[in-house]
Design goal:
By secondary structure, the chain is of the alpha+beta class. The chain contains 3 helices and 4 strands; from the N terminus they run βαβαββα.
């Protein structure tokens, strides 16, 4: 089971990343949980200064941009 988190305050890019992560994980057929973290205090606990960000099993994989679906597959598949 993959623990996926999208860090962001709800901007367009943050929502886009959340949708893309969910769609990609579903297409991959993996078991996952997806949590959207919008509280600034929680986001800074990950040392993320730019959102959106993707966290996979506790590791920040990308921040400050929306990666492509192929990049997300690589990040989730690791």
């Amino acid at each position: 089971m993959k623990d996926l988190k999208v860090l962001g305050t709800g901007c367009v890019s943050c929502r886009m990343l959340a949708d893309l992560v969910e769609e990609t994980a579903h297409q991959m057929g993996i078991e996952y949980t997806l949590t959207k973290v919008g509280e600034i205090d929680e986001i800074t606990e990950y040392n993320v200064m730019s959102t959106p960000a993707l966290v996979v099993n506790g590791d920040v994989k990308v921040s400050g941009r929306v990666p492509s679906a192929d990049e997300i597959k690589d990040m989730i598949g690791e």
